[in-house]
Target: Alternative ribosome rescue aminoacyl-tRNA hydrolase ArfB
Amino acid sequence: MPDLAWTPRPDELQFDAIRASGPGGQNVNKVSNAVHLRFDIRASSLPEAVKARLLGWADQRITADGIVVIKAQDSRSLERNRADAVARLIELVQAAAHVPKARRATRPTYGSQQRRLEGKSKRSSVKAGRGRVLD
Model:
């Protein structure tokens, strides 16, 4: 799966307008322009492999029930915060869609082993020369 060109369907997203925290004067107490985006992984249109990888992550944005909760409050505009939350959800899903290449165990080369041991013996002799001088 090279790049997952996935966008969530509108019926898969649930937005809740909440009051933003932080500075903003009186306006921040009156206007609900921050957004909580809720996205149910299990009930989504994602491929099964991506769902499994997302559910296996230990991410604080993913609840035990398999719901992604993203809070967006950077902008003063509700629409921009919604767009930011959706963009962050897509970014999260694309990160889960990326399958890391399996690491094959390799052995260190003979030359690298010799260089390591030579460095250790040099360091040992430097430290041994730091002892107390006896006259």
